Amino acid sequence: MFETMKSILAKVKADYADIRHETKTETRISFSGNEVTEIGTNTTDGYVLRILNKGGYSSIAFTDSAAHEKVIQTAQENTHLMASLASKPVSLAKAEVVRDTYLPKLTEDPRAIAVDEKLELTRKYNALVLKNEKIATTNINYLELSRDKHFMNTEGSEIREELITTRMSGLITSREGSLIQNVRIGIGGSNGFSILRNREDHFENRTRIAVELLRAQPTKGGRYNVILNQSLGGVFAHEAFGHFSEADIIEDNPSMRQKMRIGAKLGNDILNITDDPTPPDQLGHYRYDDEGVAATGTPLLKNGTLVGRLHSRRTAAAFEESLNGHCIAEDYRYAPIIRMGTIFIEPGQDTFEDLLEKLGNGYYILNAKGGQTSGENFTFGAQYGYVVKNGKIGELVRDINISGNLYSTLKNIAAIGDDLKLNQVGGCGKGQSNIRSCHGAPHILVNNVVIGGA
Amino acid sequence: MEKLTELAKKHSDQFELYTLHQTQNTIRLEDSKLKDIQSSIQSGVSIRIIKDNRLGFAYTKKLQKPEELMQNALNSLKGGVEARYKFPHTEGIPQLNTYDRAIDEATNTAIVEEGRRICSILEEKTKAQVNIYAGTTTGEMQIRNSSNSSLSSKTSYYTITPYIIYPGSATGIHRSLFSKTFQKADDSYLNTLAELYNRGKQELNIAGGKMKGLFMPEAMYTLIWRLQSATNGESLYHKQSPLADKSGKRIFDERLTISDNALDDSKPGARAFDDEGTACQHLPIIKKGVLMNYYYDLYYASKMHAEPTGHGFKTSLWPGDMISMKPTPTLQHVTIEPGEKEFSQLIRNMDRGIIVCGALGAHSGNIPNGDFSIGLSPGLYVEKGEIIGRIKDAMVAGNIYETMQQVIDIENMVHPASTGYYPAILFDNVSVATKN
Questions:
Q1: How confident is the model at residue A425 (pLDDT cuts 50, 70, 90)?
Q2: DSSP secondary structure letter of residue B323
């Protein structure tokens, strides 16, 4: 593969160029209710070429290597346009030349397991849910995604890395009369198939919640103190804070850039947030990003003070900050963009019982149901929650969407638990989709949260 | 392709070959500066086969090994995906005007220059940060099947969306323009955006509660999404629709008429056939508040013993790879009929209320049930018929089957927006939660 890539790169006239080829193999199995609606394994591939010349920087994705001359011409025209019209020339931070192959260690390589066995495991979990008569339907999907990536650049780097993601995710829907409720399921990871085995508890627990939600009361809109569980705390770290640690998001937004300056005191002293894709055996793991830069653990918030941010080679040069290997593409259809790898709130000292006592009255809300940010403002949904009175967990509640302002919420994180947990199923939709987006947190107590109610 | 056709004929009872070639250019200006130009040239082939009432599906980006693609499709037959339908024989469908040759002359240079012109005008009028997202897409799609359908569609598409950003935010007042080729934005469009932005400059803290809510076209997808979920053949089959027994009954205010018309080629993206080769149609969903129709692809039409409506499209919630998707029931050409009021009159009719200019988190919440609970992104505040500022940290919540019964007035024109063409609609008794 490197030979084909090298021959394309050789035809590019530029100060710098890189090319990435990916072979992507997907196995999908889907159930809707009792029925299999999809099953199959398919392989596709394609290239992304990036060119930097005279300060102009552009990219092109393509699937047919035979058409590379037209591809190079288009990319060079775009690069020329960028050089002539962009307000400042682009430069790239200096990166090490790397020649390496990295194949992740897997506990049971999913590619070696017959599709029939995958189908039967998915069928078993699906049936476990459907045997409850209050469950109207399910939508449960097995996905196995293998990306075999080859990267090379004109500086001499040549890297091959495989990323293999295995997961089972979907939705359980309960119904009584005209009331419909749903709960998400999600198990998986980046370290092999075995993480999907013996997970009956997960499906039984989700089923129970989906059924109990039919009797739950809606929340009332207003301002509350809340405990977020690990899933929601992780979504907060990712959605509300993490995206503004991505240099490309704030680069051309003067007001956000001013607020997100290194050294700014943004949160309480107890708050530490880090992004670190390097530990293996967690969803967000990778060794090199899609610019060929080695990933490094990056503290972002230390004792409430902003100490770092996530970079590509372009933004690291523009901000005059260090590279940390966070420029990632969904697949061969896209040029890489700056993304979180594994972002998490570092654990504190409080037990969950301590947090309940500190909360007193409010809500304990659990499990993410989608989130979105717009500048300082964020909104995300919780799958369910409980009323907390005098530090005791009470009745179940539903229809919980919370909204807030990043900066005031960072200061309103009043206590942090000692029970960090990372998610197993990811999905970040910043321009492209990143199913290995990993986040986590311990339980956290947040004051003055707006709940939309029903 | 001929080899693949031969193999499909040999190994299956029915087959469908889908090919797509697409070229895209995307251009981004942030804070009026050219930030990025990206291009993409992608091709692909997918095949569906039916044998013994079972479906096989496979796809590839390069058809170099037809045998391998066919084998993948045959392998997937073993999963037992049911397919008790026939690929359609479609002919005599309207020839739609979906491609404008002028798109070939729409250079990235011209689009960048237009973006800079818009930034300059809006910056001068608002003194604010302006971002632009623009791009062109051209595509050629073909479907051939064993029922002797041979269909093709060539499309061109230009879009530009200026955002006038409120300080501290990553969004602001925005409105998209869609067309079949590059065209300059007119002054009245830019003036409307700038005026709306300027009126919302002051940041306000207001008390929450029930009040009038004006949903702009840019936020309307929040409500339409719930309706799409409830009228989808898939939701009906899986008993997830609260509208399963409501056909012919009035569910919304009688001034609301909502239809899906893929055949309207005055707009870009018109389609004479869907991604399964079924002829498209003008399908009323809601007529004067009454539920008229559900919509189906081939699979769910067969399950529900209904006729396919030409709504089997390869789409997903998030950007996906069309070649790798199977068609599912989707409304892609939704329009809400305009009402009678000028936009300015809608605002004058508000004693106290909010304008929902954009939605944060529309995908959260209990969509099948019709519930929504969204952050305002942004939200403007109106008192005594005047916009007096914008609201921070507020949410709007409700259920479409209550909210869409409470129409006060509908704007007299539609605007292109996410998922369709919508007027602004003023609703009564919208629940607003704030920090106060």
A1: very high
A2: G
